[in-house]
């Protein structure tokens, strides 16, 4: 058991009610909107949090705009130094923040710590990036002219995040946005505000230590109403939104209507193709962790296994055996493999999907169900389950955010790739094979249509060094590594004439 009061104290959240006190950057003051935050682990009240009012939201955005005037004029490597200090603070708080992530969201303690490690990693990445915001130089077609491009910050970057990665997604966006010279306004999921408050306190301390305005890092606690305000707000040139496809369509339409920029990181429906040449022992670890890790609540969770007919029965038996060994329970107990779903609505969705799957002809080889009794009082613990299905079934085409794994069979690899691609989402995908031709076909233009395509690694999880995101209904955005930073900046092309003439481009003559 974890002393959660001690964890909150160490993170600067002193009492149960402290989280509700008014802080300009991170909370509201309207008495009417006090919300109880319960843990899915044991359903205990963690804290009461006040949601921001519209006026408070507007004040925060004004605060951010003012801070931008200071921040954009600080050289990028110096901004990197602030992000380096954030990384150092996160190292100090990894133990406690990871525990709070686990307790508030319900993921395993290992994954809670892993999430904080991801934050540290992206800070390190961003520090290096702060000296590498490169533009290109071009050769001008005109004599004694020079052309180049440079990258400038956008201004206020709005971050809307989901409950399942309550802190990492913020850091993926914020660390990059900051070194690029932007300030951030973050609206975390209304289901996980405490981890966000803890992060805000850590960053506020770093800013204070450096005599910088807290408006560089703003937090607004609220539900989708605040998200909507942000989406329509012309003061926020870029919205980076992570969540369901339904949310992404609404945010995309609102931001698009004002011709703003957006990064959308939405739902996945991720498959692993298991060929006759797969190493089945290795595959088993990737598939089971992918399907049941974070109780199936990762955007990259494995939802579908597309298995060659020659190994289908053998692998199915291995899966059934492995599922029989899964320990479900308190995620803070490191002996357990599977923790709870986020709340009872998620449990309802899980049960509905099982019913729909059965109604469409799905055959369960590992049955699901809700657990009750000792240790399961929150009502959020469910059994990971497995069904044999066909890819066309409506429920299979849909992302259920729970540990339900679908099995399907294939004869030739082209058909398997077509099945993998034939869903509305396009986030993560994988092939398990020791055959080079199969692997290369999967990665080729005729292979996976997803933003992430792996060989001999499951679909779940990613390293921060690569650009993260997916195609189709996953939204098309990219965050984190590679050159994802470019989305947080505006490109300016500069042509400089150092001659005594004014030649026009394309040889156009214009004599006066
Ligand atoms: P959600 O869509 O319910 O909420 C996500 C965030 O959007 C919350 O902060 C919410 O308040 C806000 N929101 C909801 N409707 C909005 C609207 N109309 N306008 C503005 N803001 C709005 O998602 P969730 O249940 O918190 O998270 C689960 C979903 O997130 C899954 O679909 C999962 O695949 C997806 N996800 C995707 C990624 C990715 O990188 N692709 C990462 C994590 C989660």
TrEMBL record:
<dbReference type="Pfam" id="PF00171">
    <property type="entry name" value="Aldedh"/>
</dbReference>
<dbReference type="InterPro" id="IPR044638">
    <property type="entry name" value="ALDH7A1-like"/>
</dbReference>
<feature type="active site">
    <location>
        <position position="265"/>
    </location>
</feature>
<dbReference type="InterPro" id="IPR016161">
    <property type="entry name" value="Ald_DH/histidinol_DH"/>
</dbReference>
<dbReference type="InterPro" id="IPR016163">
    <property type="entry name" value="Ald_DH_C"/>
</dbReference>
<feature type="domain" description="Aldehyde dehydrogenase">
    <location>
        <begin position="29"/>
        <end position="493"/>
    </location>
</feature>
<protein>
    <recommendedName>
        <fullName>aldehyde dehydrogenase (NAD(+))</fullName>
        <ecNumber>1.2.1.3</ecNumber>
    </recommendedName>
</protein>
<keyword id="KW-0520">NAD</keyword>
<dbReference type="InterPro" id="IPR015590">
    <property type="entry name" value="Aldehyde_DH_dom"/>
</dbReference>
<comment type="similarity">
    <text>Belongs to the aldehyde dehydrogenase family.</text>
</comment>
<comment type="subunit">
    <text>Homotetramer.</text>
</comment>
<dbReference type="InterPro" id="IPR016162">
    <property type="entry name" value="Ald_DH_N"/>
</dbReference>
<dbReference type="InterPro" id="IPR029510">
    <property type="entry name" value="Ald_DH_CS_GLU"/>
</dbReference>
<keyword id="KW-0560">Oxidoreductase</keyword>
């Amino acid at each position: 058991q974890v002393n959660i009061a001690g964890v909150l104290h160490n993170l600067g959240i002193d009492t149960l009610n402290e989280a509700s006190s008014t802080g300009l950057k991170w909370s509201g003051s309207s008495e009417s909107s006090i919300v109880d935050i319960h843990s899915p682990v044991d359903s205990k009240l963690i804290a009461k949090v006040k949601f921001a009012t519209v006026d408070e939201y507007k004040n925060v955005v004004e605060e951010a705009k003012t801070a931008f005037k200071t921040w954009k004029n600080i050289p990028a490597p110096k901004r990197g130094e602030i992000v380096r200090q954030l990384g150092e603070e996160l190292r100090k708080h990894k133990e406690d923040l990871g525990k709070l992530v686990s307790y508030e969201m319900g993921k395993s303690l290992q994954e809670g710590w892993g999430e904080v490690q991801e934050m540290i990693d992206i800070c390190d990445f961003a520090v290096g990036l702060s000296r590498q915001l490169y533009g290109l130089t071009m050769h001008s077609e005109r004599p004694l002219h020079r052309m180049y491009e440079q990258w400038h910050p956008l201004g206020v970057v709005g971050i809307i995040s989901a409950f399942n990665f309550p802190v990492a997604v913020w850091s993926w966006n914020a660390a990059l946005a900051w070194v690029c010279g932007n300030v951030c306004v973050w609206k975390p999921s209304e289901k996980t505000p405490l981890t966000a408050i803890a992060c805000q306190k850590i960053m506020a301390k770093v800013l204070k230590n450096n005599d910088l305005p807290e408006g560089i890092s703003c937090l607004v606690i609220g539900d989708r109403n605040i998200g909507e305000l942000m989406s329509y707000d012309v003061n926020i040139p870029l919205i980076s939104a992570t969540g369901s496809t339904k949310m992404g369509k609404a945010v995309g339409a609102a931001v698009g209507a004002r011709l703003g920029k957006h990064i959308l990181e939405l739902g996945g429906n991720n498959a692993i193709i298991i060929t006759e040449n797969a190493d089945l022992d290795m595959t088993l670890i990737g598939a089971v962790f992918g399907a049941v890790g974070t109780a199936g609540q990762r955007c990259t969770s494995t939802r579908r296994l597309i298995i060659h007919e020659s190994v289908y029965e053998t692998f199915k038996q291995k899966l059934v055996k492995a599922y029989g060994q899964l320990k479900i329970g308190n995620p803070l107990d490191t002996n357990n493999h599977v923790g709870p779903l986020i709340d009872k609505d998620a449990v309802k969705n899980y049960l509905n999907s099982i019913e729909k799957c059965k109604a469409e002809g799905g055959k369960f080889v590992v049955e699901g169900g809700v657990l009750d009794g000792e240790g399961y009082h929150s009502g959020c613990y469910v059994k990971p389950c497995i069904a044999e299905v066909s890819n066309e079934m409506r429920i299979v085409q849909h992302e259920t955010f729970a540990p339900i794994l679908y099995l399907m069979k294939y004869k030739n690899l082209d058909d398997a790739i077509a099945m993998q691609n034939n869903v509305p989402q396009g986030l993560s995908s994988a092939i398990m094979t020791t055959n080079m031709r199969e692997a290369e076909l999967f990665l080729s233009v005729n292979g996976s249509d997803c933003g992430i395509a792996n060989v001999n690694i499951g679909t779940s999880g990613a390293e921060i060094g690569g650009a993260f995101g997916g195609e189709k209904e996953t939204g098309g955005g990219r965050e984190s590594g590679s050159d994802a930073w470019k989305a947080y900046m505006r490109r300016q092309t500069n042509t400089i004439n150092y001659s005594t003439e004014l030649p026009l481009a394309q040889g156009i003559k214009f004599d006066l």
